[in-house]
Amino acid sequence: MEYRDYYQILGVPRTATQAEIKKAYRRLARELHPDRNPGDAEAERRFKDANEAHAVLSDPEKRSRYDQLGADWQQYGAGGPAASGGEWSSAFGGAPGGMRWTVHSGDASDLGDFSDFFSAFFGSEGAGGSARPAPRAQATGTVEVTLAEVVTGTERMVALDGRRLQVKIPPGVTDGARIALRDEGVTLTVRIKPDPRFTRHGANLHVELPLTLAEALFGAEVPVPTPTGSVKLRIRPNTQSGQQIHLAGRGLPKRSAERGDLVVRVQVVLPTLDEETRDDLAETLARDPQPNPRRTAGMH
After folding, report:
1. What is the tens place of the pLDDT at every residue in 176-218?
2. SS3 breakdown of the chain: % helix, strand, coil, rounded to 5?
3. What's the rounded Cα separation, in Å, for the pair 75 and 89?
4. Domain 198-296, CATH 3.30.390.10 — does that match?
């Protein structure tokens, strides 16, 4: 049976502190996570190895017993008495309880299995026990957020299976994103509440802005809604219906520190005129007729 160097697996020295072990494990877990490496058998194997190494080195009692192998690890690896689990098992006893089970957001019951080395070295927990603890049942739930909370990030207190969990939701979260609380065996799906004012395209938000004919013709300063409040937008004279105005950085957060745009689409609302006013306007337009817009657009 091959000896497993847990320190080498995590890439830390044998003198590493608990903080250094935790940091190294988190880095590897993010890098090798099955959700980021679908179908990659090598990444899956290394993900399992990192879980096993962390389960031992993050537990002071397990780590102490593991470190007692010391200089005899080569004898263990060469198939010495430890290979049968006999003398080493009696020397170090059974594995202590309380091991935390690491899972990922999905059906990952097979990713937590520990190696034969772990089983032989730590033995079973009590009579008839198993060296491989059963994984915590994976609980699922849904949490709703508003667009404003997508911009700023937020926290939620979630009640699930009789537990109350404080959940941090990062800025820029997308609809359907999953947040895995691995220590709790919980996966939450994020749902963004519909906001009738906006449509979302990635990090950009699109909004319709109605204008009066006078505002479009002569220009104006009008309020425009954003997820976190309104802002003033200066409308230039002769603004056309359907014209788009981009407000940079007023959209949703991206993966970087940047934010998308708020894309404002102008919609000119024509006035309803009485007969007398309509006749007066017709005379005015007849004296100074507008160029044929269809000809300008190439629609003869």
Report:
1. 888 888 777 788 899 999 999 999 998 899 999 999 999 999 9
2. 35, 25, 40
3. 15
4. no
The answer to whether residues 244 and 231 touch, using CB atoms and an 8 Å cutoff, is: no
What is the rounded CA–CA span in Å between residue 61 and residue 52?
15
Contact 208, 267 (CB under 8 A): yes
Provide the CATH topology of domain 6-122. Answer: Helix Hairpins (1.10.287)
Put simply, whether the predicted model's pTM sits higher than 0.70 gets the answer: no
Q: Which of 105-109, 119-123, 248-252, 257-261 has the lowest mean pLDDT?
A: 105-109
Residue written as tokens 């207190």? 157
Q: Which residue from 175, 168, 186, 41 is spatially nearest to 104, judged by alpha carbons?
A: 186
Q: What would be the CATH architecture of the domain defined by 139-192?
A: Sandwich (2.60)
- Helix 41-57 vs helix 18-32: crossing angle, to nearest 10: 160
